[in-house]
Write a structure and sequence with these properties.
The complex is a heterodimer of chains A (57) and B (235).
Chain A (H helix, E strand, L loop, with lengths): L3 H53 L1
Chain B lengths: L3 H28 L13 H28 L2 H33 L7 H22 L3 H15 L2 H11 L20 H47 L1
Helix pairs in contact in B: 1-7, 2-3, 2-5, 2-7, 3-4, 3-7, 4-5, 4-6
The chains are: A mainly alpha (57), B mainly alpha (235).
Chain lengths: 57, 235
């Protein structure tokens, strides 16, 4: 049982690193999805204002 | 509506990985007997060995997807290669970390320049270079082509790591193959534990690959939308 801290350290390292990696991918995907939604809104707004200008001419 | 890939990842792979991982932890800490020679610290092997095998699978996938990207030129293969390289790096890092923690009580040192350890560290460095190349290259097309070549060349190290214990004098155990020194996984409970751990990490690898690939797909979509917005501005 004297080597228990090594066993504990190995399994802790696995879970901590995996958790940090999964959290970082999750954050990345979330921020990319938000950017996509913003860009869709901007493109739609530009399209609408462009059409309005053409109608006014 | 959920796509088939998303359904496979979120409904099959993620729960499968979670359940088998809990079962593997129970088996590692409660069910499996301690090794007669190495004692309790040998239990690190039940996660270290699957991590090592799946590192090779991930980097092998980088080589395969890179070759298909160079041949077909489709973004799908490039995205898969990039995702597999990043997830493979994660698994390779965990393999090296758990290996050094096991080595300290067994060999009396955290690290030794043994053939297998050194070739495994070289593999980590090759794919670290791969990821840096992708990050710092001037254009994404150029980065993809250079990285594909590096991804293929880097995979040559995989069979070298595998054969290192036979080609050179090494202190790394080959317990799965030779069962030398009466310290192999001869007990059926040890074999079952290793199998369950392998299943847990295989499912985790599959799920992580899907999630990371989704990230690459979203990144591509952002680039396309930026170009579309620029075109709208110029109109």
């Amino acid at each position: 049982m004297t080597n228990f801290p090594f066993l504990f350290a190995a399994y802790t390292a696995i879970w901590v690193l995996l958790f940090l990696y999964i959290a970082s991918i999750g954050r990345r995907n979330h921020s990319l999805q938000r950017e996509i939604d913003e860009l869709h809104k901007l493109i739609k707004r530009h399209g609408d204002s462009g059409r309005a200008q053409e109608t006014n001419r | 509506m959920m796509s088939t890939g998303r359904r496979l990842a979120d409904v099959v792979l993620a729960p499968l990985s979670g359940v088998t991982m809990l079962l593997a932890l129970y088996m590692v800490f409660v069910y499996v007997p301690s090794d007669k020679v190495q004692g309790i610290v040998q239990r690190i092997f039940y996660f270290h060995v699957p991590l090592a095998i799946l590192t090779f699978v991930a980097f092998g996938l980088v080589a395969l997807a890179s070759a298909l990207f160079l041949w077909r030129g489709t973004r799908f293969w490039d995205r898969l290669a990039h995702s597999a390289a990043e997830v493979g790096m994660m698994f390779c890092t965990l393999m090296l970390v758990t290996g050094t923690i096991w080595a300290r009580p067994i060999w009396g040192t955290w690290w030794t320049w043994d053939a297998r350890l050194t070739s495994a560290l070289i593999l980590w460095l090759i794919y670290a270079a791969y990821l840096m190349l992708r990050e710092f290259s001037a254009t994404s097309d150029q980065a993809a082509r250079y990285a594909a070549v590096l991804g293929i060349v880097g995979s040559i190290d995989i069979p070298i790591i595998n054969r290192a214990v036979y080609w050179w004098r090494t202190i790394h155990p080959a317990v799965l193959v030779t069962r030398e020194g009466g310290s192999g996984l001869e007990d059926p409970r040890m074999q079952a534990t290793l199998l369950v751990s392998f299943l847990a990490f295989a499912a985790l690898l599959g799920w992580l690959l899907w999630v990371r690939n989704e990230s690459a797909r979203l990144h591509d979509e952002v680039e396309v939308l930026h170009q579309q917005l620029l075109a709208e501005h110029e109109r």
